[in-house]
Amino acid sequence: MNTEQFSTPLLEWYDKNKREMIWRDHFDPYYIWLSEIMLQQTRIEAVKEYFVRFTEELPDIESLAGVSEERLLKLWEGLGYYNRARNLRKAAKIVVQDYGGKLPADFNKLISLPGIGPYTAGAIASMAFNIKAPAVDGNVLRVVMRYMKCDDDISKISVRKKVERHICSIMPERPGDFNQAIMELGEVICIPNGAPLCEKCPLQETCRARAAGCQEEYPKKAEKKPRRVEKRTIIVWEWESRLGIQKRPEKGLLAGAYEFPSLDGWVTEKGMKEKIEQLGMTGYKISPLGGATHIFSHVEWRMKGYHIILDGGLEEPGLPRDVVFVTREELDQKYMLPVAFHSYFKRITTFGQT
Is the pTM for the entire model greater than 0.85? Predict the structure, then answer.
């Protein structure tokens, strides 16, 4: 890799073809930081609406540092990987306390903040402060490994560091644009699924994998372990037009989020009735809500659900695990309900009491 063959044509292509994104219209380090965190594990098109909503309510680092966790998670609802949001707030508090509310223009200080790893620190440093720091994500790895026809396993940290060194050795005077250009090339030309669009690539003349006709064989990566499959029974309790929810533990999957109560495994309708009656409740109506699947990074939930409408009365039903009853409007506007449960919320909201 060298500047003349790689960096120069890449930047020329980027200047002509870069996509418009709201965070690119500003050189605000906060916008760059927020967009990079949101874009982790999430498609660009999905992020745009969240970014606008988030920055309208939390326009700067001070407001992010001061927001409640409950409101923060509600603003993040649907993006998933909720520790990203928690770490944003933790880091914002540190930035307010130690750096006067401004992100430091220093790679090592950036990487010391919660939730900021080498990639994000490099992205902020290069894009916001014009510091020559690499920002190596999956797109960059794919472009570089194809270009060099390198057989190294990209899941290894040592390989990522090797690529970072290569990037640094050819980084021009526009480090932010350069990092974005490689990522953009990986997203729209040197794509991960299917044949790369080599005929449109500014690096086609010097790409080794293209020369050998083996582009789709790169990058090399060890096979992932199969996801663990969990069967769950989701229970949507309803009492006096309010829905029962409970808060998940503060650690682990979907930590601190609200959910509809659930049981391990699939429970039959007969078994569900027995469990309800074991709780001492006899006045109820039960309706199946059907199946749903939600995939996390390492776990797959295969769910079936029930809508259980309890007889009204003055006393709130005594349900296990701190179930609280809220209105549909409160659940929609106030409480953070993970995407895994959205299909069941939509089913009872769309069709009313089944």
Answer: no
